Amino acid sequence: MSTTVESVKEMLNTIKMHNTAAALEGLLASATGKALSYEKFLETLLKQEIKSREAKRLEQRMKQASFPQYQTLDEFDLAEQNSLSKRQFNQLKELTWIEQGFNLILLGPPGVGKTMLSIGLGIHALHNGYKTIFTSMHDLIHHLKTQEIVRSARTRIRRMVDADLVIIDDLMFMAMEKHEANLFFQFINKLYGQTSIIITSNKGPDDWGELLGDPAITTAILDRIVHRCEVIHLSGDSYRLKHRASIFGNY
């Protein structure tokens, strides 16, 4: 490696263009082979840096989103979910509902794809530049209760409040005490009007009073969530049971 190339790499690292510095020799070899002009080489170099930075930001946002698994919308089989039309599915993919401040409530029995669809929409939104956070109801309540004393919980809640889309999975997982229901209301109130929410639940809003306990808090929460909201009922057989793995194969 020439001293000039080494010097350029050091300068690139100094201005924090680390990815370009690492790829410099390959870029130079490609430019020489293609007889690129100085302008074209500079354009190629800057495109390399921008692309690598965007990939790094996407990786960081994906990590912060905390999806339990990576499942894209391509993996959601509409043929097995007759309650959602292709037109409706494509409309969800357009993500205009996030721009319009709409919420989604995905209802249905266990295993019909509520969580899979919510993750797919969340990953799709993230790839399209929206800040997205996924949380289970259990984890959300834990973070709300500990945010005053645990820094990581406080950071997590702050990221949710600053997000474009928050996914709350399995709303009816556990009954809440009054203090927990009040914390949940305060959280929903902070998101109201600025952040879209996807909620998955096996029971409809009319039954949420069983979870939240306090009728006044239940009404206040529903008022904010349902104000601009699309309720999607998913039905059918359990996807997990239908596609379960077997140690006996096909025998």
Structure description:
With 251 residues, this protein is of the alpha/beta class. The chain folds into two domains: 3-65, no CATH class; 73-241, P-loop containing nucleotide triphosphate hydrolases (Rossmann fold), CATH 3.40.50.300. It is built from twelve helices and five strands. It has helices at residues 3-14, 18-34, 38-65, 86-94, 96-99, 114-127, 137-146, 151-162, 178-191, 209-212, 215-226, 239-242; strands at 103-107, 132-136, 165-169, 196-201, 229-233. It has a five-stranded parallel β-sheet, with helices on both faces. The longest helix is centred in the N-terminal third of the chain and has 28 residues, at 38-65. The termini are far apart. Mean pLDDT is 86; it is low at 238-243.
Radius of gyration: 24 Å
> Which blocks of ≥5 consecutive residues have pLDDT under 50?
238-243
Mean pLDDT: 86
Q: How many β-strand runs?
A: 5
Report the CATH C-level class of the largest domain: Alpha Beta
Compute the number of structural domains.
2
Structural class of the helices, strands and pairings?
alpha/beta
How many angstroms does the end-to-end distance come to? 61 Å
CATH topology of the largest domain: Rossmann fold
CATH H-tier superfamily of the largest domain? P-loop containing nucleotide triphosphate hydrolases
Q: What amount of the residues lies in strands?
A: 5-15%
Put simply, the count of helices is: 12
State the CATH architecture of the largest domain. 3-Layer(aba) Sandwich
Largest sheet: 5 strands, parallel
Proportion of residues in helical segments: 55-70%
